[in-house]
Structures are given as structure tokens and as C-alpha cells.
């Protein structure tokens, strides 16, 4: 860690110990002092260069607080070294937490006369919209705000109510005066993932990937930096690391506005960016009160379960119950182990999942992420749009939710046809000794007939096939309802006895006719 000597404006290397320092929090401008500038410039010359003004004033403030050293992100990191940049970003929360004081410079808050004007300028400052300033606000034990003219605006503790209105961060956290990383991490650990994500939801960063990297310290996560992979992939990696470190299921309680959901059917369990946790998109109770997911106060039957990750998706256990009046039997409510609190009442959130595979009952995708259902005891509250589908008024009694191990992919694979359909005439479940047999009496042209030539033509199991290469069905985009692709007429023949199909005895050589339609 490099520190600036506030007297000489020269960098000094600091390897740990008890050195006391101030730390600067600010919004970067177009002409900041870089590591290359400060290591190559003459100290006397630097004292008079225009673009050194912010640095000079910061050092002056640090000296007024009786601190000989200052850390500034623009010039204390050699950003030409990817290894050093990675180490600094992964260490930055700790550096802010261990500082004596954080000097927060709000360059766009001018000196104003009235308190009302001052408060509005403070609320509107760009400092509250940037991603990196979130940890710079939370991590230090003490933050002092300065305006454009470097006049003191107040401390974080003094302005906690105003800051809460702008950021949504609770005043208990803002009033803290800790000076140890472990203390602030312990306080943050008591809050839900969704609540902390909500703080970052409206913030922006210059580099897309930094919207995830600026949250590493907030979630006590370390991970490699991969600039160039894009915001969505980086934020997905962050969520995967968070899931490894906690069983807090509020990470799945994100929500999208309806206009973003239209045109996309299936979703994963992971959000694409912090804006999915935006308070404007949050669940609301019947009175319109915004509900933020909190950690559950109660023991869950699934507290000991674990979540595993693959390159394809998440395998986890969730409590599922069938969605009322869903005739397909594929849509479920998945209850999350977190809660909304309204007074003394706890409300559990649930998201909508749909079973998305014909050959397994454990493969699910998320659907309608614009909806978060609210559950109180054994009743569910849904938006009016879905309530109109459910008989019984404003709530519906549900079946008991049952824990199930499921898999949810990160991305939905492309929809593809089966290669075809094969049918071998046979009757399963017959009693021993039954002489009931099944024959194909007639077939539509789409069915092809095959015999196994290796076993001869007599008494050989036959098979019938519809090959979709030779008899293609409709395109997936145009398939709106079941369609007949082929027809088989079957004959069940009983000789000397009866099988399991007929309800009355069948004379020898009698036939039962069935029609099998392939959809």
C-alpha cells in the first residue's frame, strides 16, 4: 500500500503496522493526478499545477486533522500493473475501514445560503450515484463531507438521516464509529444479500465490470478481475461467490419491471445486474408499502442444505408447491428462506418456477420475474393479474410446500425437436401366462415399418417410426397447440385367456381395436 506524505506530496510505501492515515473519496474528473504523474513530477512544481488542486486540498485537510499520510485511488495505485490493480480492488474495502477518517469531497455541492438549497444540492450530488463510493461511505469508521469550496458539510453520523433518504442505508450502520474491518463486516453480515444489493441498484460505474467489483468488500468476497468479460458475466460470478459463502436465499428475490420481461419466457435464478434489486421494482404489500427481503428470524427445515454450481447452472433445494389452477402441472411457487417484515408480521416471498423437461421432474426455469408472491401462513397474495385467474378472492389456500432438489440453468438451451418417435407393439403389466398380444392393424403413411433382420422374419419384434427428417412437423415458432403427426390402429388379440385390458372375458380369436394418435 502506497501513501502520500501530506507535507511533501511524495509517495511512501507502507507494508502494514500502526501508521495512521486519511483516505479520499471523490468522483473522478477528466484530469486527475495519476501514479505516473506523482512519481515523475517535481514536488515543488506539483504544488502549483492546476490539476493537483484536489490533491493539495485533500492533503491540507488531512494535516488539519493531524494526519501525516493520505491515500488517494487515482495516484496511489499503479494501474498499468494488472496484478497490482487486482490486489488493490480486492483490498480497498479494508483500506477504507482501517483509515482514521475518510474525506468525502462533493465537488458539485456549491456554497449556498439557505439550508433547503444546501440539502437539495447534497441529495443531488453525483457522489451518491457512483458504484465505488458505496463502500467508501460504509467502510470507514468516520466520514467527513466537504463541499466544492472545501468547507465542512458534516460527518456521516451527523447527516445520517439525510444519507438514509438518498441511499436507503439504515441509520444504525451510518452511525457506526468502528475502526476495524471485522467490526463493519460483522454488521454487514447481519443484513440480507438483497438489502445490500438494493443500495447498489441505482449506481453506475465507468467500466461495466466495476458494478460487480465495487461490491466485493460489501459482501466480503475476493475474486479475480477479468475486464472485458462484460457486466452480466462479472455480476454472475459475484453472485456465485456470494452463494458459496451464505445460505441467504434473498439473493433470488430480485424482480424485473414488466416491460423488461416481455419477449423473454425463461430466466435463471441469478440477476443480470444490481438494478434488478432496485427498490422501484421491489415487491409491495396490499397497501403499496415497499418490502425489502430480510434474513429470516426463524429456523428453516432447509438450513443444512447446500447449493452446488456447475458451468450450466445451480443445483439447490427449494420448497415448492403447485401453482393454484395451473392445469399443466408444471408451474410451481418456490418459497425462499428470507422474509419481508411489516410491523411484527413476517411475510415470505415466493418466485415462480416452471418444470422445463419432459424426461425429469427436477429441471426448472424461472418465469415471470416481474412477480414476487407474498405468503402469510398458508395463504398467498398475488398481483391482480394472477388473482383474477384464481377462484376465491384475494388469497388462495395452498398445498404444503415440499422441499425438492432441483436444477436451474443459467441460460435456457435452444428449443429443439426430438429426432423422431418409435413405437414397439407390446402390452406391459400382463399377468404371467397371459396370451394377450398387440398388433398394428393399420397405419398412416408417416409411420415407417421395421423388422430386425438379424433375428429372422418369423416371430420378430416389429417397430414403427416417425422420422422427423422425412416427415417434419411445424416449426417451433408456429407450434401453438397439439398437432396430429401420425395414426396407428392397434388390435389386442387374446387366445385362450384374457389380459388386463378387457373388463369381460374375451372369446378365443376375438379382437379389441384401439386407435393411437401421435401428437
TrEMBL record:
The Heterokaryon incompatibility domain covers which part of the protein? 21-107
Could you tell me the superkingdom of the organism this chain comes from?
Eukaryota
Spell out the protein name for this chain.
Heterokaryon incompatibility domain-containing protein
**Gene source species:** Fusarium austroafricanum
Phylogenetic lineage? Eukaryota, Fungi, Dikarya, Ascomycota, Pezizomycotina
